[in-house]
Write a structure and sequence with these properties.
The complex is a heterodimer of chains A (about 475) and B (about 450).
Chain A (H helix, E strand, L loop, with lengths): L29 H4 L17 H12 L22 H7 L2 H4 L11 H18 L3 E3 L5 H18 L6 E5 L5 H8 L3 E5 L9 H7 L4 E7 L11 H10 L3 E5 L19 E3 L20 E3 L11 E5 L2 E5 L16 H37 L15 E4 L1 H7 L3 H10 L6 E2 L8 E4 L7 H20 L18 H6 L10
Parallel strand pairs in A: 2-3, 2-4, 4-5, 5-6
Antiparallel strand pairs in A: 1-7, 6-7, 8-9, 10-12, 11-12
Helix pairs in contact in A: 3-10, 5-10, 6-7, 10-13
Chain B lengths: L9 H11 L28 H13 L8 E2 L12 H7 L2 H4 L11 H18 L3 E2 L6 H15 L4 E5 L4 H11 L5 E5 L9 H7 L4 E8 L9 H10 L3 E6 L17 E5 L15 E5 L12 E5 L5 E5 L6 H4 L12 H38 L4 E2 L9 E6 L3 H10 L2 E2 L2 E2 L10 E5 L6 H13 L2
Parallel strand pairs in B: 1-13, 3-4, 3-5, 5-6, 6-7
Antiparallel strand pairs in B: 2-8, 7-8, 9-10, 11-12, 12-15, 14-15
The chains are: A alpha/beta (about 475), B alpha/beta (about 450).
Chain lengths: ~475, ~450
């Protein structure tokens, strides 16, 4: 594929991509309004291109991406399921897009209905008592939750500054905890890949504010001891937080609210099919049990006889975690998804996700053996440790070689507790043919590793760029284009 | 049953289960019996696409949008013109269905677009470095404060009372765990930050001074004077601004800001009830390694060909965990892409013109309103596209009358500032016509 110049390198003075109306009010000199010291002195530095040039540029760029709509994208922990098109169409209706947050609430009852009902559906799916849709992403939901936990204990005049986090957790868990001012205590996993209860017992005391658990965990395993873990934590007065990143394994099968979880976040951009956008916008709603409701961020969406309204009168609230009310467009898409699937459809989602992950696991686990064996849930973690030790081929090389088979690589080197990890999440929306093609590709790669391991270092072969020199890019960061003098 | 997105036939399932060596999916579910859900979820059954379209169309009609009514609302979300090309590019699935570009070989589209976005933002702001985006303007500002705490020791921030009140609240939420104090800088009779107060309260313990320009009242702050005061004490100068205003107003880099942030919605993103947002985050280059969020850098591949890649990931949560510069992972990449296409579409002249139109329109309207009996302009400072009007009638009554005439009137400032009861904040963008403004003025004139 040809190299695509930067848009700045295509700019030519005098070209225009947009036609704007003129001024229809009396013309006045701008200097009359604004002192010259407040006016811009330097050029804006924006490119000048025509609309056809602009379109061709960005369409060509788009063609350099792999995405869910072009390729199998089994990126573990990211739930790259199909993004239904009707959701996109309906979320872009002008009566949704062109609403101002400070309009009177009587003029956006339709969208408030969607927000309210989405919250209710999430409450039913999770077994939680109330949901806030405000957080903009999963990590933002975590931070919101940690701040609520803080406020909860401050209110009870209990000094608790420790958060327990298993070593298999996503990096956002410890990062969110420390952002909220907590001290992170790492809990080991046992040989089965689940929380080591002995290590947990040793660390539970009355300074523990909560345990953050991902269920199923990042190995794709359900924490079978979770009822006990909840009991232990609760017996010491602590709370149980659930990182909902892996909720795609649980919908209709079990509810966090029924196994002791007090507070959790959802990822609408994972479980509920809204597209990832190349890194956002996402949406990370937070669900809580009764006792934590007073601490939810303002405003909450409530309903009375005259309709839906925004409630700011919440004295114990942690306050605001963002401007306005949430990534509304994402919520509208998730609402559409929930409506189309309904109760029966939702149940099939998780079952089929579990089926697909186990099919892949079973077909590949002897070739890429992981230290944690056995039935998994919605994702499986394999390992290339034997390949590295025997043939010098790393998970990274396997990932890059997969690209040659037109497959997006799985998550690699995560979870950290598995060496040379390949974390594979196929989701329920991929057909058996697609799964078979992926399995065949990895079997073929295993064969190549046996026969000609060094060839993998050259992969990928047919991409717009080959492997990037990341060391140099990090040592001498160039984060913007500058005109060569 | 409605399963439009699950492809497996009964035969497929049977064969997959055989390969796995189990008889049913049930055998694969390792959830302990005691916590299995044994009844159906209490949710409605699924509906068809046709039914869904009907329902959503019905719900959409229960909203009145700024396309139906004429809007003079601002305050952080704005009704600006968006060229069609922006939505067309952003609705390409190659842009909206991938994940964060972790694999550069198959993500050059997203990576180059972000690199171009970073360049556009740096140029527009005259700042050295920009990240790939944050959630919104408010969290961007809160993260700027947290970053300032990593750069400079101290015990407090001085924050303009003319900062967006919602941003101020978010700042309080984010800073609470740190115990760092926040002191508000009152506004003067001109409607801008009181510099005497600022001078008075500055000391070596001030980590940073946070202002908004144009401020929440639309007024242009004395950014150069503030800079001198802030830097005299070695504090960090943190500015939140309206990126669109930079088409004509002096950008943060020109007045020596250390960290500059913004809500990016006005650049090509629909308002979406305040959800069409993304945070812009820029700083001086010496703070690059303290920045939160994703950053794309230029690089070379094995053949020496130019490419782009996520850099400085060792700052981030997936590597640094509890010692990361921020917990942010997913940001607002698609919104930033829209801003990128918008800025390229506007070009050098287009954005200048838009900013100029906003300014001329707003000045026209303000003059008309303040000439009406019962309406006063309380603040004398120069302004951009928003201005405050003091009314003799209650804002509720005024806005109700306007609503009846299919106009969204100004924002009632009493909601945020108890001392500003009977004050409205009007916003005028390039989309407002003389006819619309004259209609507003005529109705205001009739209200007694």
């Amino acid at each position: 594929m040809n190299d695509e110049k930067l848009i700045f390198e295509k700019s030519k003075k005098g070209r225009k991509a947009v036609s704007l109306s003129g001024v229809d009010v009396e013309r006045k000199d701008i200097e009359k309004f604004i002192p010259s010291s407040s006016l811009r002195k330097t050029p804006l530095g924006l490119p000048e291109v025509t609309e056809p040039d602009l379109v061709r540029h960005f369409v060509r760029l788009s063609q350099k991406n792999m995405c869910v709509d072009t390729n199998f994208y089994p990126l573990g922990s990211c739930t790259m399921k199909y993004n239904p098109k009707v959701n996109e169409t309906l979320a872009s209706l002008p009566e949704f897009c062109n609403l101002h947050p400070y309009q009177p609430t009587s003029t956006f009852q339709g969208i408030l209905h969607i927000l309210y009902e989405t919250g209710k559906m999430l409450e039913e799916i999770s077994g939680m008592d109330k949901v806030s849709l405000q957080p903009a992403a999963g990590a933002h939901g975590e931070l919101t939750s940690m701040l609520m936990i803080r406020a909860f204990f401050e209110d009870k005049k209990e000094k608790r500054d420790k958060i327990l986090i298993p070593d298999s957790a996503h990096g956002t868990n410890p990062a969110s905890s420390s952002l909220a001012g907590f001290k992170v205590i790492k809990i080991n996993s046992n040989q089965e890949g689940e929380v080591d209860l002995n290590h947990l017992y040793k660390n539970v005391d009355d300074e523990v504010a909560c345990i953050m658990l991902t269920v199923p965990n990042t190995l794709g395993l359900f924490e079978r001891n979770i009822p006990d873990i909840s009991r232990i934590i609760h017996s010491k007065g602590g709370l149980v937080y659930l990182d909902g990143a892996n909720l795609n394994a649980l919908v209709g099968i079990t509810r966090p609210g029924d196994f002791g979880v007090d507070i959790m976040h959802f990822n609408l951009h994972k479980t509920f099919s809204t597209p990832h956008g190349g890194g956002g916008p996402g949406s990370g709603p937070v669900g809580v049990k009764e006792k934590l409701i007073p601490y939810l961020p303002v405003p909450t969406i409530e309903k009375n006889e005259s309709g839906y309204y925004l409630d700011y009168q919440r004295p114990k609230s942690i306050g605001k975690v963002r401007s306005f009310y949430g990534n509304i467009e994402v919520v509208v898409k998730a609402f559409c998804y929930l409506k189309i699937l309904g109760k029966d459809g939702l149940k099939e989602v998780s079952k089929n996700a579990i089926l697909a992950a186990n099919y892949i696991r079973k077909k590949l686990e002897n070739h890429y053996p992981s230290p944690y064996k056995g039935i998994c849930m919605h994702e499986c973690v394999l390992s290339a440790k034997n390949k590295r030790e025997e043939k010098g081929v790393r998970a990274l090389d396997i990932a890059k070689r997969l690209i040659d088979f037109n497959i997006h690589p799985p998550t690699i080197y995560f979870p950290l507790i598995v060496e040379e990890a390949l974390m594979i999440e196929p989701t329920e929306t991929e057909s058996k043919e697609t799964l078979d093609a992926f399995i065949d590709a990895l079997l073929q790669i295993a064969k190549e590793i046996e026969e000609n391991p060094s060839s993998l270092k050259e992969a990928p072969h047919f991409t717009p760029v080959s492997r990037i020199d990341e060391i140099k890019a990090n040592r001498f960061p160039r984060v913007k284009w500058e005109k060569k003098m | 049953m409605n399963l439009p997105y699950i492809p497996h036939t009964e035969e497929d399932k049977k064969r997959m289960l055989e390969e796995i060596g189990v008889k049913s999916i049930e055998e694969l579910i390792t959830v302990p019996e005691e916590i299995r859900l044994r009844s159906d979820l209490n949710l409605p059954s699924g509906i068809s696409e046709m039914e869904l379209r009907k329902e959503l169309r019905k719900l959409s009609r229960q909203n009145i949008s700024m396309e139906d009514y004429v809007s003079f609302l601002g305050g952080g979300t704005y009704d600006h013109f968006i060229p069609a090309v922006v939505e067309h590019i952003a609705s390409r699935s190659e842009f909206y269905t991938p994940y964060t570009p972790y694999q550069p070989e198959v993500s050059q589209g997203t990576l180059q677009a972000i690199f171009e976005y970073q360049t556009l933002i740096c140029n527009l702001f005259r700042m050295d470095v920009s990240n790939a985006s944050m959630y919104d303007g408010a969290t961007s500002l809160a993260e700027a404060a947290l970053m300032a705490c990593r750069i400079r020791k101290g015990d407090k921030f001085l924050v303009a009372k003319t900062l967006h009140p919602e941003y101020y609240k978010v700042l309080l939420t984010y800073l609470k765990p740190s115990g760092i104090k926040i002191l508000q800088i009152p506004y003067s009779e001109e409607g801008i930050s009181d510099l005497n107060f600022l001078k008075d309260k500055m000391d070596d313990k001030v980590i940073g001074v946070i202002i908004q320009n144009p401020n929440f009242f639309g007024c242009i702050e004395k950014t150069e004077d503030i800079e001198k005061i802030v830097h005299k004490y070695g504090s960090l100068y943190i500015v939140s601004c309206d990126p669109l205003s930079l088409g004509t107003l002096s950008p943060p880099g020109e007045y020596n800001a250390d960290i500059a942030v913004a809500e990016g919605q006005s650049l090509g993103n629909p308002p979406y009830l305040g959800g069409g947002c993304f945070g812009i985050f820029t700083s001086r280059k010496e703070f690059l390694r303290q920045m939160p969020g994703r950053i794309v850098g230029e690089a070379q591949d094995k053949e020496g060909k130019r490419g782009f890649v996520l850099i400085l990931q060792t700052r981030e949560q997936h590597i640094k965990r509890e010692r990361a510069t921020s917990n942010i992972c997913t940001n607002q990449a698609l919104n930033a892409l829209k801003a990128c296409v918008y800025l390229c579409s506007m070009g050098e002249e287009g954005l200048k013109k838009i900013a100029m139109l906003c300014m001329k329109n707003s000045h026209y309207l303000k003059e008309k309103i303040e000439n009406l009996p019962g309406y006063l302009s309380p603040f004398s400072a120069p302004f951009f596209k928003e201005f405050v009007i003091k009314t003799s009638t209650s804002p509720e009554k005024i806005n109700q009358k306007l609503l009846e005439a299919k106009i969204f009137g100004g924002l009632d400032l009493g909601r945020f500032y108890p001392e500003l009861k009977n004050h409205l904040l009007f916003c005028v963008t390039e989309k407002r016509t003389k006819e619309e403004m004259d209609r507003l003025v005529s109705i205001l004139g009739d209200i007694r």
